[in-house]
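Researcher: Watch the backbone:
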Amino acid sequence: MSRHRRKKGCLYGLAIGDAMGAPVEFMERGSFSEVKNYCRGGKFRLEAGEWTDDTAMALCLAQSLIDCQGFDPHDQMERYLEWMECGYMSCTGKAIGMGKIVMRSLIRYRRKRQAYTDIKHEKFSGNGSLMRLAPVCVFYADDLDSGVHYASLSSAATHGSVIARDACRYFAYLVIKLLQGTKKEEIFTYQFKKDLERYFEGDPLHKSLDAVIRGCYKNKSEKGIVSSGYVVQSLEAALWSFYHTDTFEEAILTAVNLGDDADTVGAITGQLAGACYGMDDIPKQWVDRLGNLELVDGVFGELV
């Protein structure tokens, strides 16, 4: 499979996971009919296939990387701010699903024009930077060091805690390795873990990620997985969904049916599964029915 198809899979996987999970976001696991396809409804009363902040912010990030020909934190924040205020890159014309940490960071940016947030306490370690990360991984797919570095800075724009930034560094490492052709079974091996630990030896990842890095989720049942907005739990839920399935479709449906922060866990899972299985494994009807497809095609198509 070509790297180009993996890149597209990673980007579209994010959007599809977001759209698939959006109608059951905030719902308790088991309290809703099993998600098998796009459906309408949910807190934001979306139409089937429409997506939320996860994809909108990813599109803002992608367009910034394209227009600036690289990483420009001020430009990214300007686009996020335009999204919040005017619905730029939105599926519905409004900033749907904005998290509290993102909102606070953007309000601070509007006042100070400070590229990186000063919200850095560990208790503010939400998943809002991990959910949108795919464009960084795709743009720097040929340069692992830059991809990991800018993944952290991408988080720092809105989520400055060490936990959130290190979750993005770890995730970028995984996704870029998949984009470069590492097989799924390889990333769950002891040797891959040792290579990862050596890679981050000079700047170790936060201890809160230790259990995820060890792969403790492999032996957990669904009851042991928490799909909350806390970045470590979202990451674990996505990896659990990816590990226990064999196709893009299975991974996404497993993730969103966990409920709670279903759209973001779906978006994170979609990045992994898309990078692994590639665009050709994504059901065509899911791509065709994705909300505002012309916008998604235009931005993501230019990035790859």
